[in-house]
Design a protein that fits this description.
Number of strands: 20
Structural class: mainly beta
Keywords: Isomerase
Radius of gyration: 19 Å
Largest sheet: 8 strands, antiparallel
Pfam families: Aldose_epim
Oligomer: single chain
Helix content: under 10%
Strand content: 35-45%
InterPro entries: Aldose_1/G6P_1-epimerase, G6P_1-epimerase, Gal_mutarotase_sf_dom, GH-type_carb-bd
Bound molecules: 6-O-phosphono-beta-D-glucopyranose
EC number: 5.1.3.15
Family: Belongs to the glucose-6-phosphate 1-epimerase family.
Distance between the termini: 31 Å
Shape: globular
Length: 309
């Protein structure tokens, strides 16, 4: 009997929503819902789930899926006129059958390319034309990589500006045993104190209560150490200077309908983001002409790379 399994497979997920399953030969896997372009599962080669998804997550449009990796675009949080965290996380994405080549050669077979473009209805809410391409890839070591390529396709020559986050929910054994390294001594805006600016102390971050902070100009590498599980997540980000750290703790957990009362103990969001300095994209001068050579001319990649050991 051969145990050769396909690297990329389409399947029906919760409530019949379409999902893509990625499998790497050594046994790791990931799942991506077309609804939201949303990664909902990432498992290591032993089949252990590394992302947190709430047992109460709804998987019902237009509510975003609670857990996994929601995409916040084109607005983070309530920092603008749009709905909380923008609309990308509650739109139906499509499979991008002919994605432009990547500047770097990604050898992984286990990857999927998705695309989001606005409908006419969408343009009434955010009057811009864009192509948002997302690649989700599993590396040979079971590492997970998300790459976003966003282009302004406005025909009126107008630039647009957005904020962005990969809102990653990590699964942890016990939040009080978790430490985050790489953000110490950095400035942050405290969402719980009117986004006032503070400087983090010199020690690694630990958790004893609700946390909702936007760390600014952070290093490209951040580590999440889970002592009980003896597991370390190493997050590397590119093009995303900020990092949000969020845990709702008990009171807010109870107030969220799609989140279990005690689930805050088993999750931590560390989100690679561009918030303090929004990104402005000019339109592509001549989209048709550039089609064949656009990779070299398209240096804007926002990527998240997570390894676990
Ligand atoms: C975090 C924000 O990124 O997302 C928090 O910093 C927010 O303020 C949290 O509560 C969850 O947001 P939502 O819209 O998914 O409930």
């Amino acid at each position: 009997m051969t145990s050769e399994r396909v690297a990329v497979e389409s399947a029906k997920g919760v409530n019949g929503l379409e999902k893509i399953i990625l499998r790497e030969t050594r046994g790791s896997s990931a799942e991506v819902y077309l609804y939201g372009g949303h990664v909902t599962s990432w498992k290591n080669e032993h089949g252990e789930e590394l992302l947190f998804v709430s047992s109460k997550a709804l998987f019902k449009p237009p509510k975003a899926i609670r857990g996994g990796i929601p995409l916040c675009f084109p607005q983070f949080s309530n920092l603008g006129p749009l709905e909380q965290h923008g609309f990308a996380r509650n739109k139906l994405w499509s499979i991008d059958t002919d994605p432009p080549a990547f500047p770097t050669n990604s050898s992984s077979k286990a990857h999927i390319d998705l695309i989001l473009k606005p409908s006419e209805e969408d343009m009434k809410i955010w009057p811009h034309s864009y192509e948002f391409r997302l690649r989700v890839a599993l590396g040979p070591g079971g590492d997970l990589m998300l790459t976003s390529r966003i282009r302004n396709t406005n025909s009126d020559g107008k630039p647009f500006t957005f904020t962005f986050a990969y809102h990653t929910y990590f699964s942890v054994s016990d939040i009080s045993e978790v430490r985050v390294e790489g953000l110490e001594t950095h400035d942050y805006l405290d969402n719980l104190q009117n986004r006032e600016r503070f400087t983090e102390q010199g020690d690694a971050i630990t958790f004893e209560g609700e946390v909702d902070k936007i760390y600014l100009s952070t290093p490209t590498k951040i580590a999440i150490l889970d002592h009980e599980k003896k597991r370390t997540f190493v997050l590397r980000k590119d093009g995303l200077p900020d990092a949000v750290v969020w845990n709702p703790w008990d009171k807010k957990a109870k107030a969220m309908a799609d989140f279990g009362d005690d689930e805050y103990k088993h999750m931590l969001c560390v989100e690679a983001a561009a918030i303090e300095k929004p990104i402005t994209l000019k339109p592509v001068a001549n989209l048709i002409l550039r089609e064949s050579s656009r990779v070299a001319e398209d240096p804007l990649l926002w990527s998240l790379y997570v390894q676990v050991s």
